[in-house]
Design brief:
Layout (H helix, E strand, L loop, with lengths): L3 E8 L3 E3 L9 H4 L7 H6 L1 E7 H9 L10 E4 L12 E4 L3 H12 L3 E6 L1 H9 L5 E7 L7 E2 L10 E8 L5 E7 L1
Parallel strand pairs: 1-6, 1-7, 3-4, 3-6, 4-5
Antiparallel strand pairs: 2-8, 7-10, 9-10
Length: 176
């Protein structure tokens, strides 16, 4: 089975979105002639997991995870809108959801998209195999944090770092 990979952008001060969930602050970095390895990453994804608010915001921006691949949307609400790609609205314990998503992805990776609370829950449950954090050179000052609340301490091991001419830096970690 594939790995669960948190692939996410974060401002230098730790936010993944503005207070209203908007990610327009990423737009100037998306128009700089590099995709930061995104296309290659998405080709290796067999399923995605995200929270309900992240799902709704991604639909508003025209994206829904890995195109044509199943998405698991963690929600306490009922099913949401029907889309062209397979969507599973679930309210499961993290280990069970991780197992289902891994099985659905087969040998491919599972993209843990976010938001912050979902990332925190998966990290606390030991269900993230690889952290791909893209630090964006912006101080938002306020917003939705990558790691809201508290969780258990977890040591990570740096595998790789890369910087681009835009000032974006990717940090890849795995649990130690």
């Amino acid at each position: 089975m594939g790995r669960i990979v948190l692939y996410i952008a974060v401002s230098l001060d730790g936010y993944i979105a503005r207070p209203d969930g908007a990610v327009d602050w990423l737009d100037p970095f998306n128009d700089q002639g590099t995709d930061y390895g995104y296309a290659e990453f998405v080709r290796g994804v067999g399923a995605s997991i995200m929270g309900r608010r992240t799902w709704e915001h991604s639909m508003a921006y025209g994206g829904t995870g890995a195109p044509g691949k199943p998405s698991f949307v963690l929600t306490r609400q009922g099913p949401g809108p029907v889309t062209q790609q397979p969507v599973h609205y679930v309210n499961l314990p993290v280990p069970e959801l991780a197992s289902q998503a891994r099985a659905s992805a087969g040998a491919s990776d599972v993209w843990l998209i976010g938001g912050g609370d979902v990332a925190r829950q998966f990290s606390a449950a030991g269900q993230i195999d690889l952290y791909r954090i893209f630090v964006i050179p912006v101080l938002l000052g306020n917003g939705l944090p990558l790691w809201p609340g508290s969780g258990p301490e977890q040591a990570l091991r740096l595998l790789h770092s890369e910087s681009w001419h835009t000032g974006v830096t990717e940090l890849r970690y795995q649990p130690a």
